[in-house]
Amino acid sequence: MNVRSTQFSPSPSDDDALDSYEGYAARYDPAYEDGRYRRQKKKANHKQKRSQEEIIETLTDESEGLEAGFAMTYRPARFEAIWLYSSLSGFYDRALITDVLSRVKGGKEANVYRCAAHPSVGAPLVAAKVYRPRKFRNLRNDKRYREGRSLIDSDGKTLNERDTRLKRAVEKGGSFGSELAHTSWLMHEYATLERLHAAGGAVPRPMASGENALLMQFQGNAEQAAPTLHEIELAPAEAEPLFLEVMRNVELMLGLGIIHGDLSAYNILYWEGKITLIDFPQVVDVARNPHAREILFRDVARVCDYFRRQGVACNSESLADNLWHRYTLNRTPMEVLADLSRLEETDAEEE
To answer: Which residues touch 141 (CB under 8 Å, ≥6 apart)?
Structure first.
């Protein structure tokens, strides 16, 4: 096994950049990344403007008191500290974590942190996945994934599907609807981890959920977080067994009526000869999502793309077609017709 890169480790210059409003936006706000900040014309505003430093100081003041005894070894930048303390303090209060040691993965939707676990947890380290504040969050256009999925609240309870008020709120995307969709997005990930772990899937053991964060088993050790498959090259002798293990998990998910939805070498961890699948918020309902077949084929194709480069002979089209037919032939004609009807309605809306 040849490791090309093992861990997200921001340089001091990165942290300095995060201490400014401009720097934080440059890293986390997708509108900045594609140049929309620079192309937009400034609107006339006769009110006295606050300096960037004043904005930063105001937001920093808002975070005062959030620590409440929860001191971190990891030193977050100013903006990061606000949402990090507010997202993880609940786990601290519930005696699940005692410290945040480092950030091990940065992404546009969420960051993952290595945390010291409370002795009662039974493991020295845990991973905390913390979603970004809504302003700086770049959640994908998740409509095609949400089709057929029920809304889940922060307690993990399925909301009334007949409540048209809730559906309209999510579709409109206002403050209430956006928060409802975000909570459901996060809780679908947690519920999926629970189901897969109980069924013997190669996933992190879920431990707790909060309004903006998930706590789960940590893959790695105190010095190094488990790298993703795309960061390493496998030895020929281990490539094929690991490929078969990934496909076992794809089949296990199909047996539970779900598809990962974003499976690739970027969402599979490697540690001590074993793989772990991660990142499940966009999990797809096989029976109720009209795009399920297309999404399954894409997942399998991405997995095969990686393992072919590692010397494994695999045909993604044949594998995906075989899996699809094996796990969907038992569906009734009415279920198939209902899916086709939903697909036609979706296509009409997109046009």
So the answer is: none
What's the average model confidence in pLDDT over 45-73? Answer: 55
Tell whether 244 is covered by a domain: no
Distance separating alpha carbons of residues 41 and 161, to the nearest angstrom:
43
Please give the model's pTM, rounded to 2 decimal places.
0.71
Q: Assign 306 to helix, strand or coil.
A: helix
* Residue length of the chain: 351
User: Cα separation of 214 and 279, whole Å?
Assistant: 11
User: What is the sign of the dihedral through the CA atoms of 51, 56, 57 and 58?
Assistant: positive
At 12, list the tokens. 């001091």
Residue 201 amino acid letter: G
Is 267 inside a domain boundary? no
Distance CA 343, CA 351 (A): 12
Yes or no: say if 275 and 287 are a contact pair by the CB < 8 Å rule.
Answer: no
Secondary structure (DSSP) of 79-113 = HHHHHHHHHHHHHHHTTSEEEEEEEEEE-SSEEEE
Residue 6: domain span: 1-33+55-138
d(CA 250, CA 303): 10
Question: Is residue 192 domain-resident?
Answer: no
Strands (E), the chain: 2-3, 97-106, 110-117, 125-131, 206-209, 213-217, 232-233, 258-259, 268-271, 274-277, 284-285
The residues, ordered by sequence, that sit 6+ positions from 31 with a Cβ below 8 Å of its Cβ are 37
The Cα–Cα gap between 81 and 60 comes to: 8
Q: Is the pLDDT of residue 124 over 80?
A: yes
pLDDT tens digits for range 91-122: 999 999 999 999 999 877 889 999 999 999 99
- How does pLDDT run across 162-196, given as a tens digit for each residue? 555 555 555 555 555 455 555 666 778 899 999 99
Mean pLDDT of the chain: 76
Residues 188, 155: contact at Cβ < 8 Å?
A: no
Two tokens at 177?
């609807």
Total domains in the chain come to 1
Query: Which tokens in the block code for residue 41?
Result: 């014309």
Helix 52-62 × helix 78-93 angle, to 10°: 10
